[in-house]
Predict the 3D structure of the following.
Amino acid sequence: MLAMSTFLLIASAFVASAVEMVEALTILLAVGVTRGWRSALSGLGAAFLALAVVTAVLGPAVTLIPIDALRLVVGALLLVFGLQWLRKAILRASGLKAQHDEEAIYAKQVADATAAGSPAGLDWYGFTLSFKGVFLEGLEVVFIVITFGAAQHHVGLAAIGAAAALVVVTTAGVIVHRPLSRVPENTMKFMVGVMLTTFGTFWGSEGAGVTWPGGELALLGTLGFVLALSLVLVAALQRRSSRLMQPA
Amino acid sequence: MTALRRFGAFWYDFIIGDDWRVAAGVVIAFGLAAMVAAVGGPGWVVVPLAVAVLLTASVWRASGPS
């Protein structure tokens, strides 16, 4: 039977990677449509190459660190990272921050790329835009895979989740040739924030020498606690924002 | 802005984000959990409690009248 932590590891890596890939795809499609596919795909290829170098350097290095120290550092990083995502997602869900809108981002990228003028030869503007978008979002995916995987000494499992996300997002991008605006990105970000916070709390505490009651089952309890806390905060902030908007 | 500053700004934004107090609180929470666990106490309650306090305080600050 697939262990719960294994399933959660693959699922978390899949969802978190998919969110970043949708953002990269939005930029890539905007460049491809407005500046031509040659520059967009050249930028994509160069970014993949740069990411492969970063992964080759970082991947083996983290597996050499003792597991408890790794869990503490990675747990703390995941928790900071998760709370950051969750904070934004809660503010968005309660209407206090604008929703992330891939359609609007796509329209802005298209307008910027069109305004930059037509090139002769390889379009360096399109290449740079595509490279930067894919490299930066890809770097976040590499970070997710290495940290998620390293805390359980199963980088391969996290990589499977990310690879599955790459297949799904690329297929969707090829089929629709438009930004994936129907993907419920804000909901996905909310869930990723909950998962990162859960994993960070669980692994970081283990790395600090804590023994969880119920062992691995505590992961499920932590997940429920973080989810319930987040939903309560969304409801409380919705009430607060409507109170603040009422005239005195 | 120099390339080094941009590089630093990227990682600061990537890891710390909008509220540095959350990052500082997480570091303190793990230190406290390690101390409680070392003396045989229920160290597992420390970080979930810290998450509740840090997250609530952070979103409350962000949602208040500016």
